C-alpha cells in the first residue's frame, strides 16, 4: 500500500500555536482547514468535543489558541475514531531521551507517531527506513536534512520527549 502524501499546514496559521491539533489532523486524516473561518470552526468543534472552556482559548488569542494537552489529543483521536493508536510507555524507552535519540532508537519503518516535547506536539512519519523520517508541524516539514535547525539551542530536536502516541495504520 502506498504511503499517503500529507498536506502542509497553510503558512498563515503559524501564529495560532495549534501544533497538537495539527498532529491530530494528520493522524486522524482529517481535512486541513483551508482558511481562517474553517480554522475557527475546527477550534469550536474541538472545544465542544474536549469540553474546553471557551474563555481558555479566547483570552490567549491568537498566540496559543489551539494549544491542547496530551489528554485532549487522546480524547480527539478517540472521538474521530479514524485510526487505532496506542501510547508508547516508559518501559519502551520514551522518557529520558531527546527527540533525535528517540528517532534513531525507538521508531520502526513505515510508522507514524504524535510526539509531545515540552509544550509542543507534532506528527512524525517514518518512511521505508528509520532514517527517512519527517516531522510535520505548523512551522513546516522537517527531515534529516534539517538536523542543524533541530539541534540548535532551543530546537525541539534537543528537547526531552514527554509522551508518544503510535498511530497504527492498517
Plain-language structure description:
The protein is an alpha+beta fold and 170 residues long. The chain has a single domain (13-168), classed as Cathepsin B, Chain A (Alpha-Beta Complex). The protein has six helices and six strands, in the order H-H-H-H-E-H-E-E-E-E-H-E. The chain has helices spanning 19-28, 36-50, 54-58, 70-80, 99-105, 147-151; strands spanning 84-88, 112-117, 120-126, 133-137, 140-143, 161-168. The chain has a six-stranded antiparallel β-sheet with strand order 1-6-2-3-4-5. A hairpin with a 6-residue loop joins strand 3 (120-126) and strand 4 (133-137). Helix 1 packs parallel to helix 4. The chain starts with 18 loop residues before the first helix and ends with a strand.
How is the topology of this model organized?
Elements: H1 19-28, H2 36-50, H3 54-58, H4 70-80, E1 84-88, H5 99-105, E2 112-117, E3 120-126, E4 133-137, E5 140-143, H6 147-151, E6 161-168
Antiparallel strand pairs: 1-6, 2-3, 2-6, 3-4, 4-5
Helix pairs in contact: 1-4
Amino acid at each position: 500500500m502506498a504511503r499517503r502524501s500529507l498536506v502542509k499546514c497553510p503558512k498563515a496559521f503559524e501564529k495560532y500555536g495549534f501544533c497538537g491539533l495539527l498532529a491530530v489532523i494528520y493522524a486522524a486524516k482529517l481535512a486541513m482547514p483551508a482558511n481562517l473561518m474553517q480554522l475557527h470552526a475546527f477550534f469550536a468543534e474541538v472545544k465542544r468535543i474536549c469540553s474546553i472552556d471557551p474563555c481558555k482559548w479566547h483570552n490567549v488569542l491568537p498566540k496559543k489558541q489551539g494549544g491542547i494537552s496530551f489528554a485532549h489529543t487522546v480524547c480527539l483521536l478517540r472521538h474521530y475514531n479514524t485510526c487505532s493508536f496506542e501510547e508508547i510507555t516508559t518501559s519502551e524507552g520514551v522518557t529520558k531521551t531527546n527527540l533525535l535519540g528517540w528517532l534513531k532508537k525507538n521508531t520502526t519503518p513505515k510508522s507514524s507517531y504524535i510526539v509531545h516535547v515540552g509544550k509542543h506536539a507534532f506528527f512524525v512519519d517514518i518512511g521505508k527506513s528509520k532514517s527517512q523520517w519527517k516531522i510535520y508541524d505548523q512551522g513546516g516539514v522537517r527531515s534529516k536534512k534539517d538536523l542543524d535547525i533541530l539541534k540548535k539551542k532551543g530546537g525541539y530536536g534537543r528537547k526531552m520527549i514527554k509522551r508518544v502516541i503510535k498511530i497504527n495504520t492498517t
